[in-house]
Design a protein that fits this description.
This protein is α+β, with helices and mostly antiparallel strands. It has 21 helices and 13 strands. Helix 8 packs antiparallel against helix 10 and helix 12 runs antiparallel to helix 17.
């Protein structure tokens, strides 16, 4: 789209969005294309609800729906009607009508053109206004739904705590009929055929799980599964995130293979940057949600970072992780997850997130299960109260992060005038006390029976070798 068109659309976008937002006209259940909202925010609300249900001894039935070709299905007359319904009228409505009127499209392939055909639906792709118009169009989808409904752009999900199996089934089936009727009225399609079924996951911690009646949607059975990928996170029926973490470890490990190959040509500084840019984001994905839910998987995550640290620093396996972290200026992933959780909690406490998250930040009783206490809100409530008041009262998020990181991350150590890869590796090995020196190898049971230096005077340690060894002074 030409830059002039985008500027024009931005001029229209601001007053329309401000009108809708200031008057509370956009559904509170919609998180897509909302400034200050995100997939993680919505997933935190969803998982908190499920963990709370576990705490109550209940199951949660969840359905995940998808609108087929959502942005292409926005019907222009229906959109104009909904804009008027939301208070957009006068010259602005006429301008929006003209904006949508007389649109045509054609296909160009290898210089061959098809004939032009008129468009009666579909918001312009790559436009500034397109996402906002889509939100307006599906905004009333959440009306008359009894279950808890969440929208993220065109991804819809329903959640209902199971207190009575029969009533829960009736409620969900009724909600699906309401959604089907809405879709028919506004010319949209949800999960149109058997190849794109809606998915159901029953979240449960019960050993003897009760039978739940099957659900149908649009005349098609809803596929029941033990897990599903939603908003970039694999949600399993026990909500321990084992498969999600395993999938991210798999991707990150492939990245380490590339990092290891590049270590032949790159210095430590560049490898460090590549790890933080291309590998660690996979280990961070969803970390504020799954932190400390499964200790064995937390250890595997730390193992991936340890292998990355060996590649970046050039150290040998068996070197202390704490010492390598000090060299590189890294923090362990456990501390990093704690930092990222509390940084988000700072935003919640200071009204920098959507209201639905702010309402969940409260005190929790002490007599709760470990599973629930390790989930985001109970965990952050406990950890937040342990922070110094000066940190909690930081004037901005950046100040909070800077001061917090001082406690968990040491500055990366300098290499001074040592610039080549081999030199930095040797210097790092000496600093972490695991190098070719005999005292280091002997202490680590690494192919030496004695720590005595070849000069015969004392152990071959850093201090001895660099300050008093005759063999070294001769080199």
């Amino acid at each position: 789209m030409p830059i002039c068109s985008k500027i024009f659309e931005k001029i229209l976008f601001d007053p329309i969005y401000n009108h809708l937002n200031s008057n509370g006209l956009i559904s509170k259940h919609q998180s897509g294309f909302r400034p200050g909202d995100s997939t993680i925010n919505q997933l935190l609300a969803i998982t908190h609800s499920i963990y709370k249900s576990f705490e109550d001894g209940c199951e949660t039935r969840a359905l995940f729906l998808d609108i087929s070709k959502a942005f292409d299905k926005v019907w222009y007359p229906g959109l104009i009607f909904k804009l008027r319904q939301n208070g957009i009228d006068g010259n602005l409505l006429e301008l929006m009508t003209d904006y949508l009127r007389n649109r045509h499209q054609r296909v160009v392939l290898n210089g061959v053109h098809s004939t032009w055909l008129p468009l009666n639906s579909g918001v312009p792709q790559g436009s500034v206004l397109g996402p906002l118009l889509f939100l307006v169009y599906i905004n009333d989808l959440t009306s008359n739904i009894s279950s808890s409904i969440k929208l993220f752009a065109d991804d819809a999900s329903l959640f209902l705590q199971v207190r009575d199996i029969g009533m829960c089934h009736q409620t969900i089936q009724k909600d699906l009929k309401t959604i089907t009727a809405w879709a028919h009225q506004w010319r949209m399609k949800f999960n149109p055929d058997i190849s794109k079924q809606a998915v159901e996951v029953i979240f449960s911690q019960k050993r003897n799980k009760p039978e739940h009646p099957p659900i149908s949607f649009n005349g098609i059975p809803v596929k029941r599964d033990s897990e599903t990928q939603h908003l970039g996170i694999i949600l399993d029926d026990k909500l321990n995130f084992r498969n999600h973490i395993a999938s991210k470890i798999k991707v990150a490990t492939k990245g380490l293979g590339l990092l290891k190959y590049l270590s032949k040509f790159m210095n430590c500084e560049k490898l460090n940057l590549m790890y933080k840019t291309y590998v660690r984001p996979h280990l961070d994905c969803g970390d504020v949600i799954y932190h400390d839910q499964l200790s064995e998987m937390m250890k595997k995550l730390e193992s991936v970072q340890y292998n990355a640290a060996l590649i970046v620093s050039g150290c040998w396996k068996g070197t202390s992780m704490d010492k390598i972290n000090s060299e590189l200026g890294w923090e362990c992933l456990k501390d990093r997850r704690n930092f990222r959780r509390l940084s988000l909690y700072y935003k919640i406490k200071n009204n920098m997130t959507p209201r639905y998250l702010i309402s969940l930040a409260k005190s929790f009783p002490a007599n709760i299960t470990n599973r629930f206490s390790n989930s985001f809100f109970p965990y952050c409530d406990k950890k937040w109260n342990l922070l110094d008041n000066s940190l909690k009262e930081s004037p901005s998020l950046s100040v909070f992060k800077t001061n917090f990181l001082k406690n968990i991350r040491k500055p990366a150590r300098k290499y001074y005038d040592v610039k080549d890869r081999k030199g930095t590796k040797i210097l790092t090995k000496l600093r972490v006390d695991f190098s070719d020196l005999r005292e280091h190898r002997f202490r680590h049971n690494f192919n030496y029976e004695s720590s005595i230096c070849r000069c015969g005077v004392g152990d071959e340690s850093n201090m001895h070798y660099l300050t008093s060894c005759n063999l070294f002074s001769e080199q």
